[in-house]
Design goal:
Number of helices: 14
Distance between the termini: 37 Å
Structural class: alpha/beta
Strand content: 15-25%
Shape: globular
CATH topology of the largest domain: FAD/NAD(P)-binding domain
């Protein structure tokens, strides 16, 4: 089957796409709106504002990679080309691994397609505790519906792969709630290698949906461009300075791209958006910038099953359980969502946390291995305030994240839940992703071991692929960086349109939360800027 490169056709047909690594002289651009970042927030904003008749420029630090690049479904290539810091991004102390995209389309190019509406409990909590207005469950419903239709988000209709079946069968036997995950796909091949980029253009990422629509409507895209700083004067952004990167999108070439716009949109994600504002010395009178950065801390449990699971094949995530998510309400002990990750060879070797002969044995059993994960809902209680984004002396983004007792308590309870589900589904032995955990052959042994584990950084394997907060929204300028429509409290012509505006974590994979919120706010912005709306 041919691999359709829509960008080759689009550029030949007149799309304005520039690879900054090819620039040989400085460039100055004027536009109505400049969008920094091309992921869930940037792509959605670009389509809506272009359709409103505004002149839009999209800037992306990462490279433009397309289905031609993805057909090898190779982990090493994908991590090098499509992830922040070659998939080596982590918290400042190295204790929590961070998987985050860095390419045209952002993390939407490499995520596992799970697409949930923001839970009503989360939206109500934001209104009650954080002074957020206009985003109640009733007000958000039409925007979620709009983006679900736009991106073909529907519950996965095929039978789950054997890896996901473990969670479904365990939940069934234990009487727990479980549900089929909605996915943003159209014509999916069910190969399972979503984290490497979709070779069939089936995943409805920004790369193949909103960005092509924006380019067709006259938007311009420049990739391999690092935005160094915003230029400020009083309560306005008066320009930005970008630095071209080389062909590998790693080093600066010395070529500058300067942009002057009527309005500036930050959509660089919950680490890079606050970092850019910090580099730009943006006003922050109440010291909220970079604060309350939530990450859905993830812990994992592994199981050996009596029949093959082949966790590297088939839709990566199709079954989830919210049984433990809201049992104690939004403000009780930390809740968590149970899901199943794929176990590609590279990522699996890191999750096992072993080496030498032991790792060789673990990998030999990979075809019969199931992994289960718990997304812990951080940011809702006093003992879980998220982390903080800061910048190094060189201006690089850094995330500090302390793991509180409330999170460690959640990790322990999540281990218990996952092990119980795996044994209920027929596991022959189970092991936590923890340096002190060993394979155990019964639920009773697992309970005893989990009670005795040391819950500390570097002993407990911690991961995240969900970054939220750092430019929190609130109608109260003392609490937030932006208001509920994403407009900066101190800079009149700056908006933030990504997950960094969330006051807490979501309690579910956040891409549809970003799509819906940004669709609502970008539509309001288009009207405010004099654009036409449909």
């Amino acid at each position: 089957m041919a691999f359709d490169n829509i960008y080759t056709k689009g550029i030949a047909g007149g799309w304005q796409v520039t690879d900054a690594s090819t620039l040989t002289k400085d460039r100055i651009i004027e536009t109505d709106v400049v969008i920094i970042g091309s992921g869930a927030g940037g792509g959605t904003s670009a389509e809506i504002l272009t359709q409103a008749g505004l002149k839009v420029l999209i800037l992306e630090e990462g490279p433009l990679k397309t289905s031609d690049s993805f057909k090898d479904m190779d982990e090493g290539r994908a991590y090098r080309e499509l992830y922040q810091e070659g998939a080596g991004r982590a918290t400042s102390d190295g204790a929590i691994a961070i998987l985050q995209g860095r390419a045209v389309g952002g993390t939407t190019v490499v995520n596992w397609t799970a697409s949930f509406r923001t839970p009503s409990e989360t939206l109500k909590h934001w209104a009650e505790v954080h002074g957020v207005k206009g985003h109640s469950p009733e007000e958000m419903a039409p925007w979620f519906e709009k983006m679900e239709k736009r991106l073909n988000i529907t519950p996965w209709a095929m039978e789950p792969n054997e890896n996901n079946t473990v969670l479904r069968e365990g939940a069934k036997k234990l009487g727990w709630e479980w549900h089929v995950i909605p996915r943003n796909v159209n014509g999916c091949w069910n190969s399972g290698y979503c984290g490497m980029g979709c070779p069939a253009n089936a995943k409805q990422s920004m790369l193949v949906s909103t960005i092509p629509a924006a380019l067709t409507g006259g938007a311009e895209l420049i990739h391999k461009l690092h935005v160094a700083r915003l230029l400020l004067n009083g309560g306005q952004v008066v320009g930005l300075e970008g630095m071209a990167l080389d062909a590998d999108a790693k080093k600066q070439t010395g070529i500058r791209v300067s942009v002057k716009a009527k309005h500036y949109i930050l959509a660089a994600g919950a680490i890079n958006s606050p970092a850019l504002l910090l580099r730009s010395k943006a006003p922050d009178p109440h010291e909220r910038l970079g604060k309350r950065t939530c990450i859905h801390p993830v812990v994992l449990s592994m199981a050996h099953m009596p029949s093959p699971t082949n966790p590297f094949y088939g839709t990566p995530q199709s079954i989830a359980s919210d049984y433990f998510q809201w049992k104690d309400g939004a403000k009780g002990p930390i809740g968590y969502k149970l899901e199943v990750p794929p176990m590609y060879a590279g990522i699996a070797s890191g999750i096992f946390g072993t080496f030498g002969n032991t790792l060789q044995k673990d990998m030999a059993l990979l075809p019969n291995t199931n992994a289960m994960l718990a997304l812990m809902r951080d940011g809702f209680v006093d003992d879980s305030q998220g982390g903080e984004v800061r910048i190094s002396d060189q201006g690089d983004a850094i995330l500090d994240y302390e793991v509180s007792d409330a999170i460690w308590n959640g990790a322990k309870r999540a281990y218990l839940s996952m092990a119980e589900a795996q044994f209920a589904a027929g596991a022959t032995e189970v092991k936590m992703a923890h340096l002190d955990s060993t394979w155990v052959k019964s639920w009773g042994e697992a309970k005893a071991q989990i009670e005795q584990l040391s819950y500390k950084k570097f002993r407990t394997a911690l991961f995240t692929a969900h970054l939220m907060g750092g430019c929190m929204m609130s109608e109260d300028a003392k609490k937030g960086v932006v208001n509920s429509q994403g407009r900066h409290h101190q800079l009149d012509n700056l908006s933030v349109m990504d997950g960094s505006v969330f006051p807490t974590s979501i309690g579910a994979n956040p891409q549809l939360s970003i799509y819906g919120l940004v669709a609502q706010n970008a539509t309001a912005l288009a009207t405010a800027l004099g654009g036409k709306t449909t």
